[in-house]
Predict the 3D structure of the following.
Amino acid sequence: MATFTGSDDLRGAEFSDVSLRGARFVRSSLSGVVMRGVEIDGADIDSPWLLEDDGSLYVNGVNVAPLIDAELNRRFPGRELRHAADPAGLRDAWDRLQEAWAATMQRVARMPPGTEDISVDGEWTFAQTLRHLVMATDKWLRGAVLGIDKPYHPAGEPNAEYGTDGLDLSVFQKTMPSYDEVLEVRAGRVAMVRDFIAGTTAEQLQATHPAPDEPRFTVTTLDCLHVILHEEWEHHRFAVRDLDAIEAKALHAGEQDG
């Protein structure tokens, strides 16, 4: 099986009469790719940033990006509030988001012990997902907005795959914290965001701060909260997707045993 990595530049490459069946593209740019007369039945595309940047994805001449956005809003009520721009809207957005997370946490609690540590197809486990959201809150609220000098909790999970600019990786634990520890830290960060939004004003939302990944640029408090909301909703979607896969696999195994 051929493997292409970052050292391989395939920009402008042309594939004609070839089979890419079962190929996997991870952290790869497919922007502007043109496909004609292709068989894509069963293809699985995940692009978390497509819908945040008013992006487009054309299938048979139809821009399906708005349709995908609408469907995700239907599946995850409250997601449509992630672009709220005033304190009241942000409070509602955070409450609805945490209602969704609470239901998912209860789902995990009802599943077999150890479910929180199962990785599906190499993705983060449920526990790791919660740890990453701790890191995201620390980065964009404690660090960027509140200006705390050492904002990161060691139980956080940095997303090293997408770059760690501005992160001191030595801060984070080298060993896995217990799930109970993760839940405790996560609950504290959820309350922190809730309390911050409850006390903010429209004027404070427009305050500017150095961007955590590139201090030459500035971001507003509202920008930072929007990043947190985006991270929360996308990782909730990933978590639900993987929990569905875990349950489906268990059901299939039960049927096989039966």
The chain has two domains: 46-75, 84-257. The two ends are 36 Å apart (CA to CA).
